[in-house]
Design goal:
The chain has 245 residues and is mainly alpha-helical. It is built from nine helices and four strands, in the order E-E-H-H-H-E-E-H-H-H-H-H-H. Strands 1-2 form a two-stranded antiparallel sheet. The chain has a two-stranded antiparallel ribbon with strand order 3-4. Helix 1 crosses helix 3 and helix 7 packs across helix 9. It starts with a strand and ends with a helix.
């Protein structure tokens, strides 16, 4: 975003130059150092570059971005609030590991919140809502980028839930998605998992288009439980593979 100013420069000779279309960057729209670092660390965590329980070295990150450790600490504190990072005494910040029990409970909460929101949203959905959802589904089916899949997955769900007009509940769901995005990427990196998600998304959108609340609730619950099951299988096979070597 840019601000346009009329700038007048007067020199000793009395000549005045006018730059009526001189453009300068609006620095208020620029991300802060901590925001830039935050995005970098979050992407490194959700993409698996920094593994679970691996330390996050503040000195290295500060050096990479040529900043002090202050914006790095600020970023880590925000990630701690999101549940992606935890601070261990005498060890510093590490990537949070979600236990199997916690992961199961997270998906239980998703079912409760998302079935409620879809039921509240459907009566308020318009043709524009359905068309936007279909457009996202088409994009989801076409992309091969894991990060883009995750973004489109959230865009679809939020598109379907926003008509419920429950911003607090939607915010809770968003915080859950942020916390488990690295696991959702694992599920969608599997070809079968992506195909299942793609097919289930279309069925949910069709149920919403038909204003069939009961069917949409059932499909949302089935979809979430399917993702949870796939994750347990994939994570279990990964752990077994790592212990066998």
């Amino acid at each position: 975003m840019y601000l346009i100013y009329n700038v007048y420069l007067q020199f000793d000779l009395g000549v005045i130059l006018t730059f009526s279309s001189f453009s300068v960057a609006d620095l208020s729209t620029m991300p802060s150092n901590s925001e830039v670092v935050l995005r970098y660390i979050r992407e490194a965590i959700v993409s698996g570059v920094i593994a679970e329980e691996e330390p996050i070295r503040q000195d290295e990150i500060a050096k990479r971005f040529n900043v002090s450790k202050i914006p790095v600490r600020e970023a880590l504190k925000r990630l701690e609030a999101e549940g992606l990072v935890e601070f261990i005494k005498n060890k510093g910040a590490i990537v949070t590991k979600i236990s199997d029990t916690d992961l199961a409970q997270i998906f239980e909460v998703r079912v409760m919140l998302e079935t409620k929101l879809i039921a509240l949203a459907i009566p308020n959905m318009t043709l524009d809502t359905i068309e936007k959802a279909k457009e996202i589904c088409r994009a989801f089916g076409q992309t091969q980028d894991l990060g883009q899949w995750a973004r489109l997955n959230w865009q679809l769900h939020s598109c379907l839930y926003e008509p419920a007009q429950r911003p607090y509940m939607l915010g809770l769901i968003r915080s859950i998605y942020d916390k488990i995005e690295r696991y959702l990427r694992i599920q969608m990196s599997n070809d079968q998992g992506k195909r299942h998600a793609d097919l289930e998304h279309w069925k949910i959108v069709d149920a919403c288009s038909e204003k069939d609340i009961k069917l949409a609730e059932y499909l949302i619950e089935k979809h979430i439980n399917h993702v949870c099951h796939d994750l347990y299988v994939l994570l279990g096979s990964t752990q077994n593979s790592s212990t066998s070597h």
